[in-house]
Design a protein that fits this description.
Layout: H1 6-14, H2 28-40, H3 43-49, E1 51-54, H4 67-77, E2 83-85, H5 90-103, E3 111-114, H6 127-131, H7 136-152, E4 157-158, H8 182-197, E5 210-214, H9 233-240, H10 242-249, E6 254-257, E7 261-262, E8 265-266, H11 271-281, E9 287-289, H12 297-300, H13 307-317, E10 322-323, H14 327-337, H15 343-359, H16 372-378, H17 382-395, E11 397-401, E12 414-418, H18 444-451, E13 457-461, E14 467-468, E15 478-479, H19 487-495, E16 499-505, H20 526-536, E17 540-545, H21 555-558, E18 561-564, H22 572-580, E19 644-646, E20 650-651, E21 655-656, E22 661-670, E23 676-686, E24 697-706, E25 711-719, E26 725-726, E27 732-733, E28 737-744, E29 750-757
The structure holds beta-D-glucopyranose (BGC).
Beta-D-glucopyranose (BGC) binds near residues 115, 159, 212 and 513.
Length: about 750
């Protein structure tokens, strides 16, 4: 049995702490309205607000006859459902809302949520790919557009951004976040929350955002989805939490907890995470939604005896809304009546949910987002499509370009476009694609065809199929390992061409939830195809379309040019063609390393030094005997069609006072012949700490555009607060001492200076 911490938890949850985390959700006049509503609500109605069901998208279809859908509609009419997810479209949401507003006693509107992760209909690159833009404005813009489209379809709330830091590309969900680094993750979190929520939740083109998964889901052991997490408070605070904190500071309205346990406690049942840190220390005034069924899953975790017990643990720990476990609706009222759950916990959860509903303007007009005319006009508008192309090309990373094979000449006589993803119109839409139309992406083949003059022959050969059978969220991809029949035609096409563009990688549903893999190399027969094509023609530009980093192995050495295009969204084909032909000079940088070998996972550039950093002759040191320690392409890495050189960085003073600032300046030169954009990166190393510190930590970046031959000074400003971390004494503060500071174009190739903090 568990000791349920009601008293302590309650004290924290009800103590409203003003400050950055208050998100403007706490408005005195609204709090009074909530008081009045709470006074009228029966216990069952209160619990109803905490209950969220998934719709089967069928509310506009034939009336549901029986089963779960009928139960849901009946409960909606009784005011026993606070939220529905997966109902979309102006008409469907209006009808669903009508059930609650016209059918229920208190007419409290429901809040409709959906996973609007990287677009609603117009798809942007999957979030990891988009993070490769290192462009917060671009990330904000794509979230803004996603919100505009989704809000016009009657939605109020997105389960995004996913802000889980992950060091493990085996974990399929790495595609949903911003990669391996907490600083870049925090910048992406801020941008995305701002983009989804705009300046005003009540505006008709904004959604309430949801920072997820709280917390440490990205550290699932061995990269296996839903697996155990056990990490120190230091790693939690220094690595996992900063993007969540940034989201809360940016005013995120909701937070989703997580499937994993952490330190023996399922996140859904964690008072430490939800009450102590999120609602207590950070003053978060919005609500926490459970992950899908995660309240019930505490039984399987071996943390709760049954759903009733799990519900009691979850509400006590601060999980405000139950997504599809049906634990609250089934048990909470009885638990309160039996004196096992204090009704104040329920009241607090209701208050938090109502705050968000008020902020969205749903009490003024519950149908305000369900507007068929706006839906028609906003969704897939030309401006959205143009933005999708722009963000996609900003996200593309040039990994290798031997002998300047790229950019390609549009006037080449024959271009062979080969590979299982060359003509594919679906993979680029990625996983978590909301209401994207299946097969609606611009394929690479189409992009190339549209870019070249009619005198250029574009020949296509699929070579091999990547996946056989159904391709959708529920299907686990069945990889083709036997059908080689297309290889000869591909070889023929390669032989006859001036240059080959080879599109390989992952299908949309090979990464994402439930898609953890131990082998993150080229799947199926792709490797065989690559080798066969290379034998026929050495001039091969490989375009990787992936959700996550792949292990390219020895193949990377034999390929002269490699472009990581991710799952680039609706306009992927045009965006990639823009890069291949030099219409756009690539500027993307990896938000997560490409490992040399899967056995290196988990890995980060921001590792600790260890007691044996080596290499040292005659001593065994912390290394593998078969593969180097470092990745193939490190965090922050990405080439351009021009080259940038960096001067030694200079610091404005050798010492920085505790309340002072330090300028770090380096001169960057475009040493090549094309204009280009470089992402200049600032890293810091704290040499001695009360707990050991990483060998490098990203602390800033700037995108600099330089004409050929142009030089520019780039200055970063560091404050003592930027050097703060969770110390041995459990405080977030900077410790005096010696630091190194590094500036460079990626996390590996940097130049350094030194300073100290007084
Ligand atoms: C995922 C969440 C998602 C939810 C609702 C869960 O399986 O973990 O990220 O928001 O489903 O679709």
């Amino acid at each position: 049995m568990h000791v349920v911490r009601i008293a302590g938890a309650l004290a924290l949850s009800l103590a409203f702490i003003p400050g950055a985390g208050a998100q403007g959700l706490v408005v005195p006049a609204t709090e009074k309205k909530i008081d009045a509503l709470l006074a009228q609500m029966t216990l069952e109605e209160k619990v109803g607000q905490l209950n969220q069901y998934s719709s089967a998208f069928d509310v506009t279809g034939p009336a549901p006859s029986a089963g779960a859908q009928k139960v849901m509609y009946d409960q909606v009419r009784q005011g026993l459902v606070g939220s529905v997810l997966n109902v979309t479209g102006a008409e469907a949401t209006r009808k669903m809302q009508q059930l609650a507003v016209e059918g229920s006693r208190l007419k409290i509107p429901m809040i409709f949520g959906l996973d609007v992760i990287h677009g609603y209909r117009t798809m942007f690159p999957t979030p990891l790919g988009e993070a490769a833009s290192w462009d917060p404005a671009a990330m904000e813009q794509s979230a803004r557009i996603a919100a505009t489209e989704a809000a016009a379809a009657g939605l109020h709330w997105t389960f995004a951004p996913m802000v889980d830091v992950s060091w493990d590309a085996r974990w399929g969900r790495i595609m949903e976040g911003a990669g391996e680094d907490p600083y870049l993750g925090a910048r992406a979190a801020t941008a995305r929350v701002r983009g989804f929520q705009g300046g005003d939740l009540a505006a008709l083109d904004t959604l309430a955002a949801c920072a997820k998964h709280f917390a440490a889901y990205g550290f699932s052991e061995a990269g296996r989805d839903y697996n155990t997490v056990d990490l120190s408070e230091h790693r939690l605070r220094n690595v996992v939490l900063p993007p969540f904190r940034a989201a809360v500071d940016a005013g995120v309205a909701t937070v989703m907890n997580s499937f994993n346990e952490i330190g023996g406690v399922p996140a859904t049942g964690s008072t430490h995470l939800q009450r102590d840190i999120l609602k207590g220390e950070w003053g978060f005034a919005g609500f926490v939604v459970s992950d899908w069924g995660s309240i019930g899953e505490m039984v399987a975790h071996g943390y709760a005896e049954n759903l009733e017990h799990a519900s009691r643990i979850a509400i006590t720990a601060g999980s405000d809304m139950d997504m599809e476990a049906r634990g609250y609706v089934g048990h909470l009222a009885a638990l309160v009546k039996a004196g096992k759950v204090d009704v104040k916990l329920v009241d607090d959860a209701v208050r938090r949910i109502l705050r968000v509903k008020f902020a969205l303007g749903l009490f003024d007009d519950p149908y305000r987002y369900s507007d068929a005319a706006r839906e028609k006009q906003a969704i897939g508008s030309p401006a959205h499509v143009a933005a999708a192309r722009d963000v996609a090309r900003k996200s593309i990373v040039l990994l290798k370009n031997e002998g300047g094979l790229l950019p390609l000449d549009k006037a080449a006589k024959t271009i062979a476009v080969i590979g299982p993803l060359a003509a594919d119109k679906d993979a680029a839409l990625g996983n978590w694609r909301a209401q994207a139309v299946t097969g609606s992406a611009v394929s690479l083949l189409e992009g190339i065809q549209a870019a070249v003059p009619s005198t250029t022959r574009v020949v296509h050969a699929e070579g091999v199929k990547l996946v056989t059978g159904p391709r959708n969220f529920m299907a686990r991809s069945v990889i083709n390992t036997t059908d080689r029949s297309g290889i000869p035609a591909a070889v023929e096409a390669a032989r006859a061409a001036d240059v080959v563009v080879l599109a390989v990688g992952e299908d949309a549903f090979q990464s994402g939830e439930g898609r953890s893999q131990v082998d993150i190399g080229f799947k199926g027969l792709q490797e065989e195809l690559i080798q066969a094509v290379l034998e026929a023609n050495k001039r091969v530009v490989t375009v990787l379309m992936t959700g996550r980093p792949l292990v390219l192995g020895g193949t990377a050495e034999s390929l002269p040019a490699i472009v990581e295009a991710w799952h680039g969204g609706s306009q992927a084909g045009h965006a990639i063609a823009d890069v291949l032909f030099g219409e756009y000079n690539p500027s993307g940088k990896l938000p997560v390393a490409f490992p040399r070998h899967v056995g290196q996972m988990p890995m980060t550039y921001a590792h600790k030094n260890t007691g044996r950093p080596g290499p040292e002759p005659g001593v065994t040191w912390s290394s593998y005997t078969d593969v180097a320690n470092d990745p193939l392409y490190p965090f922050g890495y990405g080439l351009s069609y021009t080259t940038f050189t960096y001067s030694e960085p200079r610091v404005s003073a050798p010492e920085i006072a505790r309340d002072g600032t330090l300028q770090v300046t380096a001169t960057i030169t475009n040493a090549g012949k094309r204009a280009g954009v470089e992402v200049a990166q600032l890293y810091v190393r704290d040499l001695v700490g009360s707990v050991t510190r990483p060998v490098k930590e990203l602390k800033g970046f700037q995108k600099v555009e330089l004409q050929p031959g142009q030089s520019r000074e780039v200055t970063f400003t560091l404050k003592a607060a930027d050097l703060a971390f969770y110390t041995a004494s459990g405080k977030w503060e900077a410790e005096p001492g010696a630091f190194k500071v590094f500036v460079g174009g990626n996390s590996r190739d940097v130049k350094e200076a030194a300073f100290s903090l007084k």
